[in-house]
Amino acid sequence: MSEKMFSEEQLEQLRSFPEISADELIRYFTPTAADAAFVSPGGRGPVDRLGMLVQLCTLPWLGFVPDDVASAPPAAVARVAERLGVAPAALRLYGKRDQTRSDHLGLIAKYLEWQTAPAGSQAMKELEQFLLDRAMEHDSPTLLFNLAREYLMAAKVIRPGALILAKMVGTARKAASDLTSQLVGHLLTAEVRTDLERMLLVDAGLGMTRLEWLVSPARDASATSVKTAIDKLTWLRAIDAHQMDVSVLPNERRRFLAQVARRSTNQGLERRKERKFPILLAFVAQAAVDQLDEVVALFDQAVSARESRAKSKTDEALVERAKKGEARQLVMEMILPVLADPSIPDDEVGGMLRERIGMQRLREITSDAWKPLPRDHGRLSELESSYTYLRQFTPNVLAAIDFQGGPGTAELMEAVAVLKEMNRLGGRKVPAGAPSGFMPAKYADYLATARRSGEDTAYRHYWELCVILCLRDRLRSGDVFVPGSRRYADPATYLYTPEQWAPRRGEYCRLVGKPPNAAEALEQGKEELHAALQELETTLAGAAPDDTGMVRLDEDEHLVVPPLSAEDVPAEAKALRDELAAMLPFAPIASLLIELDARTHFLDCFTHAGGRKLTTSVETKCNILAVLIAMSTNLGLARMSEACGVSYDVLAWPMEWYVREETLREANTVIVDHHYGLEPAKVFGGGTMSSSDGQRLPVRGKTLTGRTMVIHGGQVLSTYTHVSDQWSTYGTKVIVPTAREAHFVLDDFLGNATDLPIAEHATDSHGATLINFALFDLVGKALTPRLRDLTRVTLVRDDTPTEIAKRYPHAGPLLGARWNENLIADCWPDLLRMAGSLKYGQPTASLIVGKWSAASRQNTLAAALKEWGVLRRTVHLAKYLSDPAFRRKISRQLNKGESLHALRRDLHYAQQGTITRPHLEQQTEQAWCLTLLTNSVVAWTTEYYSRAVLELRSQGREVSDEILSHISPGHSDNINFFGVINVDVEAELAKLDTSGWRPLRPVQLRQLGLTP
């Protein structure tokens, strides 16, 4: 079983010493005086002392000691040898007898209080149970192996052999499969089995299997798509999919089984025989929730599309009205002076005006009646023209979805109930007494006018449109929710309950550095506020009114914030960048990926979706690489087939079963972690800061994520990426381009699975909201955006204006509002509970941010969150205004993210960069392929920068880190991704030298501009 999961090469790696990082070197290979004394009793020679101390340092590092102790990392051996005063070369003579090494390891284990775990021991039984529990959550053999290793290290148990542990992982995976069937067996009645079997048969009416029908998402938010989604939901409810409780299975297990069903053919599932039933059961249970969410989402988008259309037409009408108004204004300027002149007799006024203005012009101006506009400028009236279209699906949605209201929605929910009853009975007239107090004041005149004039049809149309619009808006804010939904559930269910939160609160507060007590939190907030305000006061007091380069107050005591001057990049940096680029070798994109995989093994992350960890053959690796290149360059599989000479069908198989969002994320994490360990990466930044920004990409065809934007010349979607200060991209998300980017800032930031120790995040103004300021602080991080229109931003104080002005004569008048401490004090426990729920991954951050950003004024918790956000924004802005270096650091980080946009455009060149894949899942996979290639180029370039800098320094050149920090690895100067793409792993690896590198270009050829 282990041979199927791990190749011999992988097993050998698991038995051997890995590469060691600088942090690990210092942490584990710094022996204490007691350690040195332990290995140095009388009579023990220098060879044994050195070998024993290497083992002593290795055990806490790896959890075991490889048999070949002499193969320990040279840097680690040298560090230990220096501590003992022994030559590092002595280690080669250590452990000629296996008994010597094992005896020493036994002494070391006793000294460090570690224990062995022979077969059948209590420790091994506990490990078996641990692995079974984890195998129910995760099916990846590599992940399970690493979790087992970490478990043993935490218990101070020496890891057994790699083959033994691999067999235990295999046994746990099989046991998890058997346990899954056992746990859901009571649900698999004869009737359920029959329903699940029918899913794999071709339905005559659909022309496809029910499984294929269910996994095909909508392409657009049309009335037809909404009704099709309702049909799917109705079918799932008919087989009681919404009542199938598979909560006995862990979340990850359910997600894994459902994914297998989505990616399998009906023939493939039939071959699984009995094992197909738990897979299909998990799929339909999840599909019932997903389909419910899709119906509501399509309803929202379809209504919003018609509202946007009405807005566009209204805006056009307003432009025309403005033109006519300009003509009327010009006429009025001719009329008013005549009327205001008392010297002109009254009986001559009319004739004089007609003569001056002209009858033709007067007729043109008076030909159209000039009516006053309603409060909404006529938008609801324009939307009324889409009433018939909306009626094609809104009654179906109201009938199929059980909308529930929270506080403050009683009238709206009563109106929804009235409308549902009218739809059921076919009523055409709104009943007398039907509620209307829920609707915005801007729409009230429409109903009042229709009621006065007795126009029942018009009243029905306007009233129903108001119900639909208000229902949609309250769904977005969470004031209205849908039981059984994931995305539109009651917001309170996204968070830990008070009972669940109580045992976690203390640990969480220690983790993020927040006091559990509200009074202490308020005092801590005030201290930070006054420290920041004091810095701002000092800055403003020291700036003269005529000092145009400083943040200052002008003569009228208004804040003046001059723009930052362009960063002065040293000329030496530009010259060095050109020189390094000339030294780097040229590499086709496929060669680059093959070379990088030889050092990182990122291709091992691409596991089969069916849970089978097969030995990845060279051919499979080639095909996976071809798919990655096809998706990231936007060639597509058909064109890639022509470019690399591999048939389309051969490429489609790894695309379907290996290249998925989770495997792409894992592979990307491996590359980012590899880049983080490179020396030049530490020069670029410490990995502690990141930024996020959206990039528009053109999209063709029908898709739910695309929107037509005039400024971009057509339909586009957005990829929202998170970039570290080391130029690596650790997060990617496809979003609707018109969506508020601020809602997605926290998603990948909190979901960061890389080794990057990010604590600070920068955005532009689009990512900065009060909700984000608050949540970043409450999860122990810092949001440091670059903000525009600072003079319009409200800053807060904690005292009266008089007292604040005494304390801060210059900064005090800028603080326009008082901070509501009482609201924070009342809600502090719930604020911590919300932040902890986000930190520990209960809800998706974008879901919470979106709900609370749109929440009504009645939502006390949302109001408290915004109040805390006002404080954090004030602290940030005070520091931002008083420290130019801080502003420049933020600007520099944002520029890194924008610079990588250019690299992505270079890589994503085919079909003019236009996305043609219609579904969000497909677009997300393509976006992650592009991110993976972008990071590969950055990592490869950084590696060769390091080698080129070493060569320059070996020649006596002084290359300072300060100059090197201004150089970007995010460029494609040395990469060729056009023409024939030859993916040949063995041939490419053969081109590397014995150390696994390409030679740098010789100076003579560099001067001629030639490649070697």
Task: Please describe the biggest sheet, giving its number of strands, its sense, and whether it closes into a barrel.
Answer: 6 strands, mixed
Number of helical elements: 44
Strand residue percentage: 5-15%
Low-confidence stretches: 1004-1008
Helix content: 55-70%
Name the overall outline.
Answer: globular
Query: Mean pLDDT, rounded to whole units?
Result: 88
| Structural class determined from secondary elements | mainly alpha
Q: Say how many strands there are.
A: 16
Query: Ends: how far apart?
Result: 47 Å
How big is the Rg?
Answer: 34 Å
Can you put this structure into words, describing what you see?
With 1012 residues, the protein is mostly helical. The chain is 58% helix and 6% strand. It is built from 44 helices and 16 strands. Strands 8, 9, 10, 11, 12 and 13 form a six-stranded mixed β-sheet that branches. A two-stranded antiparallel sheet has the order 1-2. The chain has a two-stranded antiparallel ribbon with strand order 3-4. It is globular, with a radius of gyration of 34 Å.
Show the helix and strand layout.
Layout: H1 2-5, H2 8-15, H3 22-28, H4 33-38, H5 46-62, H6 74-84, H7 98-112, H8 122-135, H9 141-154, H10 162-183, H11 190-198, E1 202-203, E2 208-209, H12 210-215, H13 223-238, H14 251-263, H15 266-271, H16 276-340, H17 346-357, H18 359-366, H19 379-383, H20 387-390, H21 394-400, E3 404-405, H22 410-425, H23 441-452, H24 456-477, E4 480-481, H25 498-512, H26 518-541, E5 552-553, E6 559-560, H27 571-583, E7 587-588, H28 589-600, H29 618-632, H30 636-644, H31 648-657, H32 661-676, H33 679-684, E8 689-698, E9 707-709, E10 714-724, E11 729-735, H34 745-750, E12 760-762, H35 770-778, E13 782-783, E14 795-797, H36 801-807, E15 815-818, H37 821-839, H38 845-853, H39 860-882, H40 884-907, H41 920-954, H42 961-964, E16 975-976, H43 985-990, H44 1003-1008
Helix pairs in contact: 5-6, 5-7, 8-9, 8-10, 9-10, 13-16, 14-16, 16-17, 22-24, 23-24, 25-37, 26-37, 26-39, 28-41, 29-30, 29-31, 29-41, 32-41, 35-39, 37-39, 40-41
